[in-house]
Design brief:
- By secondary structure, the protein is α/β, with parallel strands linked by helices.
- The strands form two sheets. Strands 1-3-2-6-8-7 form a six-stranded mixed β-sheet, sandwiched between helices.
- The radius of gyration is 16 Å and the shape is globular.
- The termini are far apart.
């Protein structure tokens, strides 16, 4: 499985977004409402990559518009970053979920390695176009897609890492996904949020 055949060579961001709408690189398109590609400036200096679209993102066709997205926007502001200088996307472009029956709530399922691998050509293509100064991996799935299986959020978060990639030498910061902050028990959530903001401030120092 691979999206490679659907990625137009030399395309700009809008051409990539249009082509991604017809991607059949893995089976996730069959149940998803639509492809959720990205949002933000094509000249952004900072890119944030999450896991996959959630329920609200799948319905609206935009990344990070649900509860986790609202928390991320607040964290971006609190970290002193300019929202206009941030590009957001996901490692996987279709919503993977389970559903007991029609009308039932759609329950998020973590993408498998085969889905991450299949979608990687889109991620490489969009980052090549945007060419940000630093890329923030939000959570384990994004870290795996961008940096490989050896990187762990708990071990490697909050530091600037330089890695040689197919795009050349790039700088990365790994942090938790904002949805993980929302899942933390109430008495620990403020602490988890402060840690997320601190990691984003590290990314801000690179700009």
């Amino acid at each position: 499985m691979s999206a490679a055949e659907f990625v137009p060579p030399g395309a700009d961001l809008e051409q990539l977004r249009a082509a991604a709408a017809g991607c059949r690189g893995c089976e996730l398109w069959e149940d998803a409402t639509q492809t959720v590609f990205s949002a933000g400036s094509p000249r952004a200096r900072l890119a944030m990559v999450g896991e996959q679209p959630g329920d609200q993102e799948d319905r609206q066709g935009l990344p990070f518009v649900g509860p986790a997205g609202r928390l991320l926007q607040k964290a971006v502001d609190d970290a002193g970053l300019d929202r206009g200088d941030v590009y957001v996307s996901n490692a996987v472009k279709h919503f993977r979920f389970t559903q007991a029956g029609p009308g039932k709530r759609r329950i998020h399922q973590t993408p498998e390695l085969r889905h991450i691998t299949a979608c990687k050509p889109w991620l490489a293509a969009e980052l090549r176009v945007v060419d940000p100064s630093v890329i923030v991996a939000l959570g384990a799935t994004a870290a795996k897609a961008l940096l490989g299986p050896s990187v762990r959020v708990t071990k490697d978060r909050g530091v600037v890492m330089e890695r040689e990639t197919s795009l050349g030498l790039r700088r990365f910061v790994v942090t938790t996904h904002p949805s993980a902050v929302l899942r933390v028990p109430d008495d620990k959530r403020d602490e988890a949020y402060v840690a997320l903001v601190a990691d984003l401030r590290v990314a801000a120092t690179v700009l």
